[in-house]
Amino acid sequence: MPKVILGIDGGGTKTHACLVDLDGNIVATAANGGANWERIGVAAVQESLSEIIDVVCAKASVTRADIVDSTFALAGVDWDEDQVLLAPVITALGLAGKCELINDSFAALFAGIPSGIGCVSIAGTGGKSAGRTELKSVQTMGMELGEGGGAGQLVDTALDLIARAHHGIIEKTALYYELPQAVGFDDHVQFFTAVARGRLHLDESLAPLIFNLANQGDALALETVSKVARQHAIDIQGIVKQLDFGQAPIELIRAGGLHTAANESFDSVFAAVLKEVLPNVHLQTLEVSPVYGAVMHAAHHYFETVTPEFIDTLTSASGKVEI
């Protein structure tokens, strides 16, 4: 039977799996629900991972014994104790080859930079920043404590500014009126009462509204977007301070909905704040699924050296295969 390498990228709502042969050819992909233990529990993660492995192996006509190496890049793997917690889950999957468990932000890093040397800024539903050199890797906590929180932070910041406008501290703009209306409220007292009493939870689905108003020049929306973009840029500055890149250019991958929305305000503030301190940083937006980064990560610890041919084969196919 052919030998294959497995990469799995598990987020809060969706998990992707990819099998490649030892030349880097994609032989099968699969998708199912989320694999973040914080949301669904450890037992459900094990069931979900086992299911997706069965599916992707069946598509490739291989067995688990044919998987010589694998990387599980999962959301919620933020601390050393998470590794300990989930280690029995990975063991129970019964894969013959070496298995490694990493935070899903590193899958995005390897997907954009095959060497895995550089930084990644995730600004999606939530936020996460990470970086890696040959000797060290670091990541933020993913708790919105001292770091950017993606679309969740965007909505929270907008809500704070709307409240300030309601108190007469700052001027009311279109954001003040349109955000409550988007969730069914024309009366601001009723809106804030519902928020205060826990009857209304504002989620990341409101992010496009804020971005659209920022594009139209709404002052409060622009301030909201600017604050979040600035924090995500500062997060990367902090990551770089903890790593030694020397004088070499620093590659930075941008991933997640806020980074890929092509919002001029967010993009310009993020780049400007970042380059104030890191003029040698080179930004690129991730255009392929992070699961290919999980595969690349597994290849790095299977092969003594990942060949340029393997990298070229995988990267050229990654933009063409739908999962």
Automatic annotation (TrEMBL):
Gene3D superfamilies: 3.30.420.40. It holds the Pfam family BcrAD_BadFG. Residues 6-298 form the ATPase BadF/BadG/BcrA/BcrD type domain. SUPFAM superfamilies: Actin-like ATPase domain. This is Unannotated protein.
